[in-house]
Amino acid sequence: MSLPWPAKYLVAALLLLVCGWVSLFTWSALPITAHEALNALIAPQPGSVVQTVVLDLRLPRVLIAAIVGACFAVAGAVMQGLTQNPLASPGLFGVNAGAALGVALASIFISWQTDLLLPGAAVIGGGCAWMLVMLLGAAWQPGAERGRLILAGLAISALCAAITRASMILAEEQARSVITWLTGSLANVGWDDYSRLWPLALIGLLAATLLTPALNLLSMGEDQARNLGLRLGRIRLLASLTALVLVAAAIATAGAIAFVGLLVPHMARAWVGPDQRKVIPLSMLLGALLVVAADTLSRGVVYPTETPAGAILALIGAPFFLYMIRARS
Amino acid sequence: MNPALRTGLILCFAVAAAAAMNLQLGAVNLPFTAVLLGLQSGHENYFIVHELRLPRLLLALIVGASLALAGVLVQGVIRNPLASPDLLGVSQGASLAAVILIALYPEVSSLWLPVVSLLGALAAAMILWLLCGRHASPIKIAITGVALAAFYASAIDFVMLTRPQNLNDALLWLTGSLWGRSWEQLWLVLPAVALMPLAVGLCQRLNLNNLGDDYATTLGSAVPQTRFMALALAVGLTAASVAVCGPIGFIGLMAPHLARRLVGGRHQRLIPVVMLTGALLLLLADLATRIIKPPIELPAGIMTAILGGPYFIYLLKKVR
């Protein structure tokens, strides 16, 4: 489409708003009309059952879906900018699996609870997994083979996923809750999850926005970037930390949602070109849109049972991954 | 004594020892004499030994051997050290078909499972073949297979999570476990046993194939025919084991490499040794799942992934 780029933002934002609104009233056990959903937001009347459902169950869920989507998408965009690898994404580089392992181990073995425990464990787990993948795939060397990196990511993910499942089974969890959580579900989130999620997500998203000029420089190649006065080591560290915080915040709330981080930055780039200053904000909007839409669908696929949103996204994302591999090699 | 023969004998002893331990250890530990007595009907341990542990032990032997054999055949044919049925998505294709059958048509008899998973495995192999063509590099075949496997796996998750009422049945397949298998399942895996001698018949042709297509053709071997037969065998073996145990990862990758280290690449020696190695790996994995924290059991597929993940990384560093 040949719209000017602010108009593209507007289109994405409008779509997101409409999708969020639709998500407030569709596929509910209690019939809610579109009008009632809107009314609950604009003119709340205490005591109304419909409004309680909208404000206390649906609204936090939509907001969390949007934030989680934005986090995964931006984390993917930052990783792709940082590694200069179009296949980089939290799912394929083992960050998701590592973070999930961290969360699982922390929730099993650490009994004291603070708000930062699970995100912290996710940062550590995801960071270790990512570092291992990068080391094994020899990612920093020039001319590194992309396929090798993907296979290293796969091996680390398989290992982390196996340990996660083993530890959850040994901790006598129900099989169903493990699978639901591992595929990424938004079924049981509420306002307290929201209040834990948004500060971290805000920090991560702001940091990513501030990093965009540096990521632009990186896309010219390492030598060029260094000549232009970029401190490579520092930028890498900051960008990696940003991506990790984003993934950790999202995973600690909603579990590992795959393929958003791979898919969305490509969509954003196809739409507004390679400039990271435009790609990253658009990734936020599109990522939020994608996850909100998937979450809405996830309630409707087999109504009244909930299907995790992550399962739907994986079904869309995996063929896209296949297409990417074939297009690039 | 011939060193290859000696390796084979040592492996036989190891498998026998692991098998004996599999019969003895578990939620209830039995001394060896009790195991022997338990094989006779009417004894107090008859149920544990004869009905629970013995069929499971035999299944582990057959499934481990078939997965390893399928790995050797695939690696031998496409001359790719990173290939194995589970990395190429064949196992996941088979189990997707099985999970769909269980979840959507729960009333169908489980005798259809091997047939359906064979169809799934064949479809998965065909899709991979169509996508990659003949002259793809090892890494490209491996990542295409991995991507396909990821797709099938997400489809499996999707089917299972949309049909939660059948989730537990499907879960038994998905996780790659030997838990709760009985004599009934042993009949389902017998086709795999029937396929094993055919693989032995292919030894000479596979050896020639290893020399490269041109040499093999010059020496009188019909290369495309060999390739087709070996791949078909591998798909059949994989499908038969997936139909009873679900996808058990990494055995088809690890066992061929370990066996090649032990006796080298001649298929006459490699094939028996790899079957023993695969059986030994799965026996040990299954044993470990039972004795880590009885009475809870882990799926054997988890143990093989914990072992196989690092081994795969090691291979990845080595393959250039």
Automatic annotation (TrEMBL), chain A:
The places in or outside the cell where this protein is found are: Cell membrane
Query: According to Swiss-Prot or TrEMBL, what is its membrane topology?
Result: Multi-pass membrane protein
Give the UniProt record's GO annotations in the biological process aspect. Answer: siderophore-iron import into cell
Q: Which residues cross the membrane?
A: 58-79, 91-110, 116-137, 149-171, 197-218, 238-264, 279-297, 309-326
A single Gene Ontology MF term assigned here is:
transmembrane transporter activity
UniProt keyword Transmembrane present = yes
Which Gene3D superfamilies would you find in this protein's record?
A: ABC transporter involved in vitamin B12 uptake, BtuC (1.10.3470.10)
This chain's protein is named Iron complex transport system permease protein
Q: Which organism is it from?
A: Marinobacterium mangrovicola
Automatic annotation (TrEMBL), chain B:
Which membrane topology term applies here? Multi-pass membrane protein
Check the record and name the Pfam families matching this protein: FecCD (PF01032)
Q: Does the keyword Membrane apply?
A: yes
Q: What is this protein called?
A: Iron complex transport system permease protein
Look up and give the organism this protein is from.
Answer: Marinobacterium mangrovicola
Q: Does the keyword Transcription regulation apply?
A: no
BP GO terms, sorted: siderophore-iron import into cell
- What stretches pass through the bilayer? 54-74, 86-105, 111-131, 228-258, 270-292, 298-316
Family named by the database record: Belongs to the binding-protein-dependent transport system permease family. FecCD subfamily.
Q: Which UniProt keywords apply?
A: Cell membrane, Membrane, Transmembrane, Transmembrane helix, Transport
Molecular function per GO: transmembrane transporter activity
UniProt cross-references to InterPro entries, sorted A to Z: ABC_BtuC-like, ABC_transptr_permease_BtuC
Q: Name a GO CC annotation attached to this entry.
A: plasma membrane
Subcellular location as annotated: Cell membrane
